[in-house]
Task: structure prediction
Amino acid sequence: MQRKRKLGRGVAVVGAGMSKFGMYKDKDSKDLFVEAFSEMLSSVDKGADPNDIDALYLGNFTNDFWVHSAHWGPVISDLVGLIPKPATRTEGACAASALAFREGVFAIASGFYDVVLVSGVEEMSKRPTEEVAEGLAMATSSYEAEVGFTFPGVFGAVATAYFEKYGATREHLMNVTIKSHNNARLNPKAQFNLSIRDTMNSKIARAEKKGEPVPTWRDEKEFLRDPKANPVVAWPMHLYDCCPISDGAACMLLVAEEIAKNFTDNPLYVVGIGQGSGRALHAADDNTYFEATRYAAKEAYEMSGLKPEDIQFAEVHDCFSIAEIIHLEDLGFFKPGEGYKAVEEGLTRLDGPKPINTSGGLKCKGHPVGATGVSQLFEVWKQLRGEAGERQVPIKNLRIGAAHNLGGTGGTCSLTILERR
Amino acid sequence: MQRKRKLGRGVAVVGAGMSKFGMYKDKDSKDLFVEAFSEMLSSVDKGADPNDIDALYLGNFTNDFWVHSAHWGPVISDLVGLIPKPATRTEGACAASALAFREGVFAIASGFYDVVLVSGVEEMSKRPTEEVAEGLAMATSSYEAEVGFTFPGVFGAVATAYFEKYGATREHLMNVTIKSHNNARLNPKAQFNLSIRDTMNSKIARAEKKGEPVPTWRDEKEFLRDPKANPVVAWPMHLYDCCPISDGAACMLLVAEEIAKNFTDNPLYVVGIGQGSGRALHAADDNTYFEATRYAAKEAYEMSGLKPEDIQFAEVHDCFSIAEIIHLEDLGFFKPGEGYKAVEEGLTRLDGPKPINTSGGLKCKGHPVGATGVSQLFEVWKQLRGEAGERQVPIKNLRIGAAHNLGGTGGTCSLTILERR
Result:
């Protein structure tokens, strides 16, 4: 990097909304987008007039493949009454809407626009599972897909490399899963808003009711070790290590810093943005870190002048349990090889010193890929504004939160840091 | 629009390259991208170090559908050695790379980056024609595709509406085709670099050689009227009214204005950018204009302080002959209903007062959809730098040129104005 990254004009977030994530038979991505957009509008404390929106950015991975319809910028623009304002789609696989957020920041910081809607949407669940997997495989590097790698396989290989290098085991991954479910239990927007213990208990109750043999799991780990309850997908990735197939949408309203107070007395400021790219698995010198995450973090920390220890809580891209552990290290929250220990010690729990994925993460909140980036920032918004309800981070003077989004198998990563002042 | 659009920091173009457009059996989009990138690098008068590039923007319509591989930002980034720098794909159907250019401008104008590669690529010709058409149909509004409209059908309907309202006929469309071919004849990068007269003569020579009945066309219009030579596709769109299926790539190097002279003594300055969105055909109140083009033009003229008459020449999105005529009007070059007369009078010829599509346009240069936007700006670059060879616009003191790009059936449009100082 040649010089310190900075923006010539500050940008603030003044509204945010998201649909509940899930698998919908009766709602398509337009329905879900309107849900997110409406919530975003009503979240603006002093009100916002849609006519004041200068431009739209839409993150979407592949409506081309899954919905058989492309060019959705103007489709969404028309849906929420923004025509003839410009609409730009960004794509970076599962990081699509983090890129939309970033382009919205640039568009305002450039001085060109004052008010920009950034958003993401994806509709996955109506396709047969094999088509969902086929579509997702297109987001791996072309080399990985060519040799038959799909996502669980890639992250299984990454986990194996990590285990080998640092001595972690499958038991450590379970700590991530248990924590994610505990957080999601408190998030009404989450696709799976129940804990592993809830899941265990409901399975036990069902067996008892049906007169079937009653499982004898004594705790969450016993449940997760049971190959019937938690079958292997691609070793060591088991069912409960993997995020689900989801539909959903998320929206945020960005405005120039100098007009933020016209919209709310409690805006959040965009203090750090970073993005990086990574090579395919076969070309990486070491598969226990993501170079794209490290680069994104470097950009965002440089711009903000903040250090990893200044980030009070974060959403990180846990498409698989191992990913969360590695990103904790790549973002500098813990040293390489120590992420899994930190999770084990409870440091990343909701009531720990560095809460991670308070929303439940991709694993439990759901992962409608094009919507994930903005939905992560929605969680940061809720937490920093003290509106996270039962899952509110109990740290006093909560001021700085971040969201890390990953696309593909590390091809595109971003880090966005928001601050309450 | 609330206020005059402006950028807080100026942006300049210091290099440009494009592959020859065509239908390639032996080259894929990676080969073509490297061709464009290499030419771009060698076009930088004082040299550019790829290590100085801060970020990449890539316009691509649907590798998802045509190449069955998505998430091409990092694929291209890796190809030209830019990893771990950020790579962002933009999509707005056939305007995908005009959007990449614009995001590159915002990224620099925001103050965040100094040197950005903007680019576009598309590979279409290796798919069966019906799959190419199926992919393109995804770029219409979802409503149009649902009722079976494909692109020639939509633009045929637009032409019919225009004929009805303004009294133009098919003969007027032929003037566009003849002009485009005359220009492309002088462009070695064009897919069809021969005039209609060349085509006629070669068909006559072939018939003579084979001892077949020799056609008796006396001029280009007789050739174009002959349903054997120029069959109907969707009335009044005939074969020679339609752009071809193409493969190709294009690149430009953008830098902050204050460092432009480090790269060349002859940079071009980005003085106007504009973008708009449009409704589907069924929702438009009048199908003889494109609201997205008008909005894009308004933004770009406002920013630049220029009027339509200040634009000395332009590339406009002639996916079909009728589109060129309508855009001439929407961009304000001629009054509504007078575009077809202007073409007939020769005003848009290479040696006329307002040369249009000196490259040969999409019709003859080719239209690898994701690459078109930047390739149009490549032509503006060549002309403004006096490097257009045989097709150099003969206007003295050529200083201001523009490129207009359209996505889908008018869903996304952009206007970009460059100036030599």
Remarks:
- The first helix of chain A runs from residue 29 to 43.
- Chain A is about 40% helix and 15% strand.
- Chain A has a mean pLDDT of 96.
- The CA atoms of residues 97 and 372 of chain A lie 7 Å apart.
